[in-house]
Design brief:
This protein is α+β, with helices and mostly antiparallel strands. The protein is built from 9 helices and 22 strands. Strand 21 and strand 22 form a beta hairpin. The structure holds flavin-adenine dinucleotide. The site of flavin-adenine dinucleotide (FAD) has 38 residues, from helix 1, strand 15, strand 19 and helix 9.
């Protein structure tokens, strides 16, 4: 049965991979959407950073060939030819000192990246969707819409407050943004903060409190060209470093021929310590840790910058699908769904899948059109 197009768009809070993927699915289903994103760019943790003559993925490091949902999003924006295998072996770091070279050199053709960085996908996707930037949502409000006609069976209207409790207004019309349904696609920490201030979705709190995550301090260091025989070092859960990679080996053209760009991510416990320091101190401490393993690196990098991921990785089991197909919100018939990398799994692909699941849950909650004696009615 066809869906009755809702009177207001479905608003998606958060323009990361989960939110963008949800919007793309709604678009495919012919359901209007609007993404409200906190920052002035899309992508969240699936993103890249460009500097003077360099490019690095500072969040997600690689995706897998088997990631079908991501594959479909890449094809959707015509970027198939920009998706490439990462060349070069990955060595394993066990504990903090030893570098173990796996048999066969560790080359793994299943790991893929995008030539122009992961941010190129989220930017391209956002370009096909309806998104407003610099729109941090602080609370979701819900009203019975007295303007709805009884036969529309659509008495719920959501509206939004910013972090100062002011209604969020449309960029162009300056009218408060109204929604016929909501997909909450922020990190779980922000989702919890929003739920605390929003009685209608307060029922989510016990679920959101189950989600555990770990931080990651990421340093990016430009150095004179290093002669590395591997692309990346991968640490285990006890390592000081969780990942050190030479970005110029990941995809050609990311940095000038005579330079290397090291991306270094601290392990969870070390990240906790680094996040307490200033950028300069944390970058130095992380570089010292990298040099303990890679002796040939110069004493000082040419330039350095960092990214603080207070909430990088989800370390608890995923929430899974909602019981009975509905997340616990009040009123229970209000179209609402959760998306993010804590819902179905903790990788980028899982975030994208959760967005698609959320869009389908919303579609299932919208009224359907039926005809009776030649008249169209809704059910
Ligand atoms: C350092 C690091 C390395 C990783 N490596 C890999 C990897 O190699 N492979 C892999 O598959 N995955 C990896 N991941 C995980 C992957 O990046 C995430 O699973 C995925 O990007 C999460 O997407 P998301 O949309 O759920 O969340 P996010 O990307 O966090 O998106 C949430 C969005 O909500 C927005 N937002 C927040 N608050 C508000 C608000 N109040 N109002 C409106 N908008 C708001 C944010 O700005 C953001 O755009 C890595 C993550 C990190 C941090």
């Amino acid at each position: 049965m066809p869906i009755t197009p809702p009177r207001h768009p479905i608003v998606i809070i958060g323009g990361g991979l989960a939110g963008l993927s949800a919007a793309a699915k709604l678009q495919d289903l012919g359901i209007p959407h609007l993404i409200l994103e906190r920052f002035n760019r899309p992508g969240g943790r699936f993103n890249s950073r460009a500097g003077d003559g360099w490019l690095a993925d500072h969040g997600t490091q690689f995706i897998r060939r088997s990631d079908e949902t991501l594959g479909a999003l890449i094809r959707r924006v015509g970027m198939e030819t920009r998706r490439v295998s990462i060349q070069g072996p990955i060595h394993q770091l066990i504990g903090n000192n030893q570098v173990i070279v796996p048999q066969g050199g560790g080359y793994d053709s299943d790991r893929l990246c995008l030539l122009d960085g992961f941010g190129s996908l989220t930017t391209a996707l956002a370009g096909t969707l309806n998104i407003q930037y610099n729109r941090p949502v602080g609370a979701v409000r819900w009203d019975n819409d007295t303007k709805a006609f009884w036969w529309e069976k659509e008495g719920q209207v959501f509206w939004f407050e910013d972090e100062d409790g002011q209604p969020i207004r449309d960029h162009t019309t300056q009218q408060p943004i109204l929604a016929s349904g909501v997909i909450l696609a922020t990190t779980p920490t922000v989702a919890r903060r929003i739920a605390e201030k929003s009685p209608s979705i307060g029922g989510l709190l016990p679920l959101l409190e189950q989600v555990k995550h770990s931080p990651c301090f990421t340093g990016m260091y430009r150095i004179p060209r290093a002669d590395s025989n591997f692309y990346a070092l991968k640490g285990d859960s006890d390592s000081v470093l969780s990942w050190v990679a030479f970005e110029e080996l990941k995809a050609p053209g990311r940095i000038a021929d005579d330079e290397s760009l090291l991306i270094a991510q601290a392990g969870a416990r070390f990240s906790d310590e680094l996040l307490k320091l200033s950028d300069a101190h944390a970058l130095s401490a992380l570089y010292v840790a990298v040099r303990r393993l890679l002796f040939d690196l110069p004493e000082m990098p040419l330039t350095q910058t960092c990214k603080r991921w207070n909430m990088a990785h989800i370390s608890s089991p995923p929430l899974g699908e909602p019981a009975g197909g509905r997340w616990p919100v009040n009123p229970p018939q209000a179209p609402f769904a959760l998306a993010g990398d804590y819902v179905l799994g903790n990788r980028a692909e899982d975030a994208a899948r959760s967005g698609q699941q959320a869009a389908k849950l919303i579609a299932a909650q919208l009224p359907r059109r039926r005809s009776f004696l030649g008249l169209e009615i809704q059910s």
